[in-house]
Amino acid sequence: MKSTCLIFVMILLVLSSCNKDIDALTEKLSKVRELGDTNPDSALSVLDSLQDAIDASSEYLRHQSALLAIRLKDKAYLKATNDGEIKRQLRYFENHGTNRDRQEVYYYAGSVYRDLQDMPNALEYFLKSADCRNEGTIDSLMLRNTYSQLNSLYYDVQDYSHALDMARKESSVASKLGVLDARTLLHEGSALMHLDSVHLAHENFCQVLEMIDKVEYKARYSAEIVSLLHYFSILDDKENAEICYKMIKNERITAKKDLYCNLGTFFLTKNRNDSAMYYYQLALDNGPTLFDKYNAVRMLVLVHHQLDSKEKVDEYANLFIHINDSLNLGERQKSMLVANNNYRYFKNKEETLKLKTEKERYRLYSFAVCSLLIILLLVGVSAFYLVNNRRMKKLMEKDMELKSIQEDNKHLQEELLKEDQELKDTRRLLGAKKQELEAVKTELEDTVENLQDTKQRLEEKKGLSQKLFKRIYKVEFSKDAEHVMKKLENAAKGLYEMKENDWKELCNTIDRQHPEFHEEIINHLDEKFTDQQVYFCYLLKAGLTQTQIRNVLDMPKSTAWTWNERFKWISE
């Protein structure tokens, strides 16, 4: 018994130590992966040093390590020479990996076949990697890179509509991740340019150039600057083309793809044909890719055709045909189209099967739901009958109660009839009272009319008294200052202009007659009153009419009327 327990404990200890070893190795592989993003060569060396521990670990870790080695070689620009290793990883991770594992293995399968120049297979696996976004958790940065690879594949076979679609998806993912750069943005502009969306393409190129101009180390975007030189040249944007050319000279950019061809195009737009032909010839002789030679010889044919050099045109035309046959662009486009269509066909077929499975599942689910509904319906009917019986008993009891209530209602109706008779008698009495009130109302109306007549007579008497008061006041005022009134009368007729002393004398005379008037004016005027307003008040108090006051003060008729209404209290 003791020996059995001891063995069991030993097994647990071994398993525990194995788990710790696996966790430690997993962490080390993660660090190697991080190191590979910046220094893939060093990461490959570290991975080799862990090979013994990897060989002794689980099958999953061994395959992860093998896939990591493929990743690091791709980042170190070590091109694959065969597809044996990636096929093994595809078989394993398609059956045992997570969605993130499948995304990665499909991506690097596409990279391997791209290195092997097997473009149809490269396209298929990059598309599979991109489609993993619909299946679960993914690496978003790898998705951005996948769209970038698909953009390049479509672009190289001149399928620019698909290239534009991939470029826009790449930009969208990069924007969400906050890693949108000039390289990513240029992909969209290049596709737009080939689709004749010249205005949109030019806006894109200007945005890319502005983004590069803000970067301190511009040589990082050497290939993009070379491409911009070409596009600005053919768009006849000489200012921006010149900026790109200066960047190439300042950064000493050499031996980049398309450099010589793009320099040739730049000088061709500046009408420097000799320099243009020199760089096209360099591209033809030293171009790093067959596409460089293809573009260079095509432009040399055009330039010599413009110069009417028939021998050179024939020479370069023959060379163009030879390079075009070597590129076999038509076959490449056809194979890529077939690969794209096949992938989409099998993808649609897979989705159709999935829909069919879902439909079958839905049918079974519907059958189960219907069966359950039938059972629930039977239970409901049974419950309904039970409840209905109980309701019938309650209804019979209610019927008995209703009969007793009807008898009570009969008594109530008799009482209501009596009360109705009493109401009729009350209405007759109210009718008589109403007639009496009408008579009283008529008497009140007559009284109101009499009061209104009395009020009107009082108003007339009040007006007469005011006129009498003005007349008496005018007489008293005239006796007190006849010479002042004489001046006012002449001023009202326009025969005399009032002086400052005349105004003082007028004001003093009225203040003696009415000591409180000066204070009343101050109380009625606001803080911004003028001398003219004060004189207006004194003239109004002196009994002058509105027309006379207007003549004395030489003021507009509208102003005189407004002030007269404002100071109406003086004459009341």
Detailed description of the structure:
With 572 residues, this protein is an all-alpha fold. The protein contains 25 helices and no strands. It has helices at residues 2-36, 40-49, 51-55, 59-75, 84-96, 99-115, 119-131, 140-156, 160-177, 182-194, 198-213, 222-234, 238-251, 259-269, 273-286, 290-306, 310-327, 329-480, 482-492, 500-513, 517-524, 531-541, 546-553, 557-566, 568-571. Helix 1 packs antiparallel against helix 2 (40-49), helix 6 (99-115) packs antiparallel against helix 7 (119-131) and helix 12 packs antiparallel against helix 13. The radius of gyration is 54 Å and the shape is flat. Residues 1-18, 329-336 and 464-475 have low confidence and may be disordered.
Question: What is the element layout, followed by pairings?
Answer:
Blueprint: H1 2-36, H2 40-49, H3 51-55, H4 59-75, H5 84-96, H6 99-115, H7 119-131, H8 140-156, H9 160-177, H10 182-194, H11 198-213, H12 222-234, H13 238-251, H14 259-269, H15 273-286, H16 290-306, H17 310-327, H18 329-480, H19 482-492, H20 500-513, H21 517-524, H22 531-541, H23 546-553, H24 557-566, H25 568-571
Quick overview:
By secondary structure, the chain is an all-alpha fold.
Label this structure with key terms.
mainly alpha; 572 residues
The share of residues in extended strands comes to: under 5%
Could you state the order of secondary-structure elements as H and E? HHHHHHHHHHHHHHHHHHHHHHHHH
- Main sheet makeup: none
Radius of gyration: 54 Å
